[in-house]
Amino acid sequence: MKPQFRLYRRSNGGRFYLHNNVTGKQESLGTTDRKEAARLLHAKNEASRHPLLNVQIARAYLAANDTKVGTRLWLDVMDEITKSKKASTLAFYLRAFKQKAFDSIRKLTVVQTRPEHFLYVLGAGTIATNKNLRRLHSYALSMTWLPWPILTKKQWPELRYKNKRGITREEHLTILAKELNPEWKAFLELLWHVGPSQGDMAALRAEDIDVEHRVIKFSRQKTRSLTVQRYGEDIAAILNRLPKSGLLFPKLSQLTSSNRAARFSKALKRRGVVGVINPAK
Asked: 3-state SS of the chain: helix, strand, coil percent to 5?
């Protein structure tokens, strides 16, 4: 049987290259040493003759450096990712990996994963599944639990987002006009004027407000960056209806970000507002 690859050397630089006799594709071996090039040529030809045997050999080499390589599941990778997360980020990842689309790979050995396994997950999931599977894949690669990518960059399906927009003033006023809960109403009003995420707003305290100089100052939860903003009469009127010490929104601060987001989504749905970005996200 004719070997699939043959070796040649370029005069410019003296590096050795492989030529694929089937496809005509050429690739550099990155070496000028003939003995090393010959070993690489032999390995490539052996791999083309015995692909299944080659996989077993590769696993044997990997097991020498990583004793768990043959037993590590994608569920283990998910657990490792969540160990380094805290608070709302931890809740996000736990919720993300609970998606039913991941069920088919949870107990699949990482090094035995093939492209069709990932494509099945992507076909059964959503845009969020695509993003979270990419995170899972990247983490496994960075930890060297995968010897090579399962899907190349071009093989990942394109992320296609729905069109999103900010809420208009008319829609905002429509929601407020029929809101009976005073704390939630003030919460939505301040969101409109100040513009933080719902999480940042729910954590706002009276001590973050400099009433004398009319300044709001707080650190954003995700970036820890400091936000300083002056305010006028509209915001002053809203603040006058809120507690003068401690949390401005004591009940709303007890809700999770998911609960606040769901409440906001319901308010939009009741008023027939669609396509709006949820400030909690």
From this structure: 50, 10, 40
Instruction: Give me the percent of the chain exceeding a pLDDT of 90.
Output: 44
Q: Residue 188: its pLDDT value, please?
A: 92
The tokens of 207 are what? 């001590």
Which stretch of DSSP H or E encloses residue 207?
none
Write the CB contacts of 209 (distance below 8 Å, at least 6 apart in sequence).
215, 216, 239
Strand partners, 6: 19
DSSP class of 7? E
The pair of three-digit structure tokens given for residue 245, joined into one six-digit string: 């010490």
Q: Which of 173, 175, 166, 201 is nearest to 187 (CA)?
A: 201
Is the dihedral angle over the CA atoms 77, 79, 83, 84 positive or is it negative?
positive
- Indicate the average pLDDT of the chain: 86
Is residue 203 within 8 A of residue 242, CB to CB? The reply is: no
Quick one: angle between helices 127-142 and 87-97, nearest 10?
A: 110
Alpha carbon 38 to chain centroid, angstroms: 42
Task: Indicate the pLDDT class of residue 217, thresholds 50, 70 and 90.
Answer: very high
Q: What are φ and ψ of residue 90, in 5° steps?
A: -65, -45
